[in-house]
């Protein structure tokens, strides 16, 4: 399992506090998690249904915390897309505001989360987000 700690601060904070390597490692792990999600969905979607076990494949390699962060960043970045449910959009916005936005200096031209936005069909990804949120609810 990838045990790289999550890093929620922005590059300015990381540089000022000598934590650039932690930021880089976390962003690399986020990008790899994104790829794992894309691959799991690709293998598990038969054109009509998403196999419910596809989340387990990703969770075998990445923590639920990282998976939820990558998914919430994706849905939040694509908030304009009507193929994501209202509930998942609200969840994503809330999670991003609680765990990432307080530590991020906004930039109108660059969002570092773009490197780990999942590029899977939004309707299928919405189902995967539901599975991840259900797993998180069971853990609580």
Characteristics:
mainly alpha, 140 residues
3D structure, described in words:
With 140 residues, the protein is an all-alpha fold. It has one domain (11-139). 59% of the residues lie in helices and 0% in strands. It contains six helices and no strands. The protein has helices spanning 11-16, 20-44, 54-59, 64-77, 86-99, 122-139. Helix 4 (64-77) runs antiparallel to helix 6.
> How many extended strands?
0
As a whole number of angstroms, the C-alpha radius of gyration is 15 Å
Mean pLDDT: 93
Low-confidence stretches: none
Order of helices and strands: HHHHHH
The proportion of residues forming helix, as a percent range, comes to 55-70%
Put the structure in a nutshell.
This protein has about 140 residues and is mostly helical.
Note the topology.
Layout: H1 11-16, H2 20-44, H3 54-59, H4 64-77, H5 86-99, H6 122-139
Helix pairs in contact: 2-4, 4-5, 4-6
């Amino acid at each position: 399992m990838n045990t790289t700690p999550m890093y929620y601060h922005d590059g300015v904070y990381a540089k000022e506090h000598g934590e650039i390597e932690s930021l880089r490692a976390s962003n690399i792990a986020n990008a790899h998690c994104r790829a794992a999600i894309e691959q799991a969905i690709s293998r598990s979607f038969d054109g009509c249904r998403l196999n419910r076990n596809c989340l387990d494949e990703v969770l075998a390699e990445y923590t639920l915390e990282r998976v939820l962060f990558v998914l919430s960043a994706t849905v939040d970045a694509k908030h304009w897309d009507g193929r994501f449910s209202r509930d998942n959009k609200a969840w994503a916005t809330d999670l991003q505001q609680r765990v990432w936005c307080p530590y991020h200096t906004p930039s109108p031209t660059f969002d570092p989360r773009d490197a780990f936005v999942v590029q899977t069909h939004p309707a299928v990804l919405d189902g995967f987000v539901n599975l991840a949120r259900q797993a998180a609810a069971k853990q609580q």
